[in-house]
Fold UBC core domain-containing protein.
Amino acid sequence: MADRRNLKKTAVKRILQEVKEMQENPSDDFMSLPLEDNIFEWQFAIRGPSDTEFEGGIYHGRIQLPAEYPFQPPSFMLLTPNGRFETQTKICLSISNHHPEQWRPSWSVRTALVALIAFMPTDPGGALGSLDYPKEERRALAIKSHEAAPRFGASERQMLMNEIHQYMLSKAPSVPRLPHQVPQEQSINREGETSQVNHLIAGAIAEGEERAVEPEDNDRIVEDVRGLRLNANAGPLRIGFNVQLRTRRRRRISSNTYEQLNRRDARRLRVFYDRILTFVAVVLIMAIAVLLLKKLLKAG
């Protein structure tokens, strides 16, 4: 019994320190305060992380600190609909009471809120209390979250939530629209941990197309486009290149000779461009091979 009282005394002292720190060093990304009649229960609000479908959203929640805090982790519950976590359900995170073995006493409420923001755009992976709404629905919920704090609990709690909501409104930017998802063909990505090289060079795709645009009068503009796309990977290293060769030429041709274009010249021009692209492809493949060999030598 005495040990339990000592632990609670330690928890109270630690919580009061964190409350003071939260008030003296406020953040634009979150705000959290305990209830006046129970310092082990906190209300919080976090701002959705930038460059995600949650950006600009204000998400309220509840934190329950155990009597053994900070030696045992808190539990978290979100109250604002968000499309990532269920509301009024304890969520499963590495910083929550679902994984006490991963908790560190040096962590704090502030640390946990920063981690919670980082978890928002991650893959749910079927974790307890997780949701996987489409980005459009999450963005709509982010916009709606600005309207008011959710209704939860007694009037004292609601007043605290409203106060936190007004603070977050003064800090949160407007919710931007979802950017168009444009695939990036030219990228260098490194994913995962180091593993054995499974493939040295896999996949080489060459694509080309030609199109012609004809103005009205006697001017003829011919535009040739040749595209080359190369992909290579070695274990966790993936490299991609996208090269385009585009030429435009204007020819002055009388209207009655459009159907008598010199096809032989056109074929020669295509052969010329194909040779250029073949040369470029060879150079790129050699460059990729050299890069991968360097990575392999360093890994060895």
